[in-house]
Design brief:
Enzyme class (chains A, B): hydrolase
Shape of chain A: globular
Number of strands of chain A: 7
Distance between the termini of chain A: 35 Å
Helix content of chain A: 55-70%
Keywords (chains A, B): Hydrolase
CATH superfamily of the largest domain in chain A: P-loop containing nucleotide triphosphate hydrolases
GO molecular function, one term (chains A, B): hydrolase activity
Order of helices and strands of chain A: HHHEHEHHEHEHEHEHEHHHH
Number of helices of chain A: 14
Strand content of chain A: 5-15%
Oligomer: homodimer
Family (chains A, B): Belongs to the SIMIBI class G3E GTPase family. ArgK/MeaB subfamily.
Largest interface: A-B, 57 and 57 residues
Strand order of the largest sheet of chain A: 3-2-4-1-5-6-7
Largest sheet of chain A: 7 strands, parallel
EC number (chains A, B): 3.6.5.-
Chain lengths: 333, 333
């Protein structure tokens, strides 16, 4: 490892506050680089950081734009810092590569949290596929853990498949909902409700009757899903819960953290937290292998040369799709 | 092309009834073979059959075991033969590779249809992954079209991802439901409701009140999904419908076919049927490429040699998942 990287490693894992913060940013920038030599250095650095990772609680938070994620995460972050925690906030915004900038990137969204010395906020990587953005976020999460942040929050907007990516890199997945009927159906439809370990109905103070209705609907939906997995009275298994809160008024933030802590204790005690992480790591390895295979295939000279004509043949119905696939695979080898 | 295959081709596309039926079975058997020389012959045969394909209507039908698919397909098939059609029925049963035999394989399920000279029934291929089973079914569908069956029905049980595979190879996807609340929620949850161009509530005569409730729920769910795609009053766009019927009593079969015909007319007139097929062909090509890449990767000697140790490293947290993925990809090349 080059001396500069060894110094970076030392600063991330045990530096003083200010150089440490700068070292985290530098490391993440290196991880996000697409240059091959940077990538090789980043891989070495990542492996060297690994023994220092894994000691945080990883909390995923998802919700559609306008649900109040930033307000909630700021309130939660300040609450946690008050309890003595150090909090990192990362984001996955799959739209950022389209818009050229992250809609979650504005640190001023979390004005008080972002200037706190016990907090570290990093916006979404702003280029690449969802898989690439998720990979860089996942690696940033490891850097934050190695730097001693003991709560890492990964947030995402409810568009595309980013919820699955976030649920796949966190210990607990929280879905934020507005007190609207229909909102739940969308979440069920998209398969996001199924991922949720906890559903939070924000802005519950605005229309209490609607919030109560939404809560009943979500509870019954969660129960129905649960029926296919577990016994309803098995208390060694976490049953997803529904909470109401008002992030703006900071109502319900302590109850939220209480529930998260119950979940964490149960999952730790039963070994399911460690099991979930092992499964995530292996799934992640395969996800990256698949993405890499696709990228290599599509950039292969012989494939690139013959693909347009073969695709036209398939579209015009002169070559069967499966035959075209076999020909392309033969060209690749 | 060998003389035997040329003869097969001629028999499939313009033989007399009995040798034609035998030629179809022989061709499909060749397509299902895993021998490399068979596969090469099958590819040539498939491409030669292609100009004779595409003239049928491809109807996908899905539903959980017990919903009454066989009874319905028999009633529908006999109805269609009465109207002068020739009907082929294929099946995708992803569980057949586990159980060693297709639960849909029993031709006696459709006693009257299976012996009719205007019908051809083929059970699910009984080995391989869902992707492999779907590929062989998709190719069998082309053979049936080349043999002049002008309605091809592809049925599947509502387990696993087989519904997506069937919707991806048919012109219209029909979901059969029982008049149960909860049944719809499961379909919404699994993302199957979204695929449906038509939802059929079978056994509606047993509990009319429940069927009416289910119909209202499904209608409102379909409307909510539709809101995100199309204008509700755009009549150049198909809006998924819900029908009640009783397959056992053959009630509603003619209304069902009437609705299917309206759909087919609209999709043909607007060009969406041709567009859907082109999209399916291309998606299928890529699906097969991806599956082939994965298979080649996993059977690559260097990958096989190093995978177990690297996977252990990832599980034990000594190598980062993304680093392990990059190493495996480098071994592959």
């Amino acid at each position: 490892m080059p001396a500069a990287d060894a110094a970076l490693l030392a600063q991330v894992t045990c530096g003083d506050a200010v150089p440490r913060r700068r070292a985290i940013a530098k490391t993440i920038t290196l991880l996000e680089s697409t240059r091959a030599d940077h990538r090789a250095r980043a891989d070495d650095l990542l492996n060297a950081l690994l023994p220092h990772t894994g000691r945080s609680f990883r909390l995923g938070i998802s919700g559609v734009p306008g649900v109040g994620k930033s307000t909630f995460i700021e309130a939660l972050g300040l609450h946690l810092i008050g309890l003595g925690h150090r909090v990192a906030v990362l984001a996955i915004d799959p739209s950022s590569s389209v818009s050229g900038g992250s809609i979650l990137g504005d640190k001023t969204r979390m004005e008080r949290l972002s200037v706190h010395e016990s907090a570290y906020i990093r916006p979404s990587p702003s280029s690449g596929t969802l898989g690439g953005v998720a990979e860089r976020t996942r690696e940033s999460l490891l850097v934050c853990e190695a730097a001693g942040y003991d709560i890492v929050i990964v947030e995402t907007v409810g568009v595309g498949q980013s919820e699955t990516a976030v649920a796949g890199m966190t210990d607990m997945f929280v879905l934020m909902q507005l007190p609207n009927a229909g909102d739940d159906l969308q979440a069920i439809k998209k398969g996001v409700m199924e991922l949720a370990d906890l559903v939070v109905i924000n802005k519950a103070d605005i229309d209490e009757a609607a919030a109560t209705r939404a809560r009943a609907q979500i509870t019954s939906a969660l129960r129905l899903f649960g029926l296919h997995g577990h016994q309803p009275h098995d208390d060694t298994v976490w049953h997803p819960k529904v909470l109401q809160l008002s992030a703006l008024k900071s109502h319900g933030v302590d109850a939220f953290w209480q529930t998260v802590s119950e979940y964490r204790d149960l999952q730790t005690r039963t070994g399911r937290l460690a099991q979930r992480r092992r499964g995530q790591d292996e799934a992640w390895m395969w996800e990256r292998v698949d993405a890499g295979l696709k990228a290599r295939f599509r950039s292969h000279p012989a494939v690139r040369e013959h693909l347009p004509a073969l695709r036209d043949d398939v579209r015009q119905g002169t070559v069967a799709a499966s035959v075209a696939a076999r020909r392309l695979l033969d060209l690749f080898h």
